[in-house]
Specification:
36% of the residues lie in helices and 18% in strands. By secondary structure, it is α/β, with parallel strands linked by helices.
């Protein structure tokens, strides 16, 4: 089970240079990945960095970390622009990108404030159409698609990403079935469970149930399955506890570094201490 960081690029971490320096510290401390929240708005007065520009700075400074936006709400992005951004970042990083996708929500009015799709059903259609377009464009062949939301008629996008395809993880609010079906067709699942701020980790039993559900829907046994946990707020305990998540089917453990509850210097301490073992 690989260990990564799940960082909100808000506040002091809206400075891409600071995030890149943090990523270099993470790589030296033994972390396996750095994944950034993808938001346009947050609480009033909160500075926010664009994750894709910030990840380019991270890619240029590191050599080993897996990186990605976790997760990008495809319904508020142009899928062809997103396809180009991800492919370019994958080449810049030497093939280290993980592509996280989801519906997003309107909690900070990131849809309604701009007159974008507000209904979850409409966002789901836009996500599925957009994801199909993105993966077709990555394949390096002409794309001709007419959908409910998007129409595309283009020659091959070149150059393609280094990875074929870029591993894609879909966010799933457990136990909803439609996002699970989406994830089962991809390379990974990023399950979201309820439970406060910072969110507590799921139980190994919950992770096992997610893995079983994905397999029942045709998912690959090799697909990634992600656990997020703020161990700085709720220590995970012994290595045996961590191993139970791996036995249940988790392939990634992401340290939740949200915008509240931990100062920037506290984030740096967590990162510098290295992953739990």
């Amino acid at each position: 089970m690989r260990k990564g960081l799940f960082l909100a690029p808000f506040g002091e971490f809206s400075d891409p240079r600071r995030v890149a320096e943090l990523a270099l510290t993470a790589e030296r401390a033994g972390w396996d990945g750095l994944f950034l929240w993808d938001h346009i708005l947050a609480g009033p007065g909160t500075p926010i960095a664009d994750p894709w520009v910030t990840l380019a700075a991270v890619a240029a400074l590191t050599t080993r970390l897996r990186i990605g936006a976790m997760v990008t709400p495809v319904a508020r992005r142009r899928p062809w622009v997103l396809a180009r951004q991800a492919a370019t970042l994958d080449r810049l990083s030497g093939g280290r990108v993980v592509f996280g996708v989801g519906l997003g929500d309107d909690g900070w009015r990131e849809y309604s404030a701009f007159g974008e799709l507000e209904s979850p059903a409409g966002r789901a259609v836009a996500l599925d159409e957009g994801l199909a377009i993105i993966r077709s464009l990555w394949a390096g062949a002409p794309v001709h698609r007419v959908g409910t939301v998007h129409r595309v008629d283009v020659p091959a996008f070149l150059p393609p990403p280094l990875q074929d395809p870029i591993p894609t993880w879909a966010a799933c609010r457990w136990p909803h079935r439609r996002p699970l079906r989406r994830a089962a067709a991809l390379e990974g699942c990023f399950p979201i469970f309820g439970g406060g701020w910072p969110p507590p980790p799921p139980s190994p039993d919950q992770i096992s149930k997610v893995r079983t559900a994905l397999l029942s829907l045709g998912g690959s046994a090799d697909a990634d399955l992600v656990v997020t946990h703020a161990s700085w707020a709720r220590p995970p305990g012994t290595g045996a506890e961590l191993s139970r998540f791996e036995e249940a089917g988790a392939t990634w453990w992401l340290e939740w570094l949200g915008p509240e509850g931990l100062t920037p210097s506290g984030v740096e301490r967590v990162v510098g201490a290295g992953p739990p073992s």
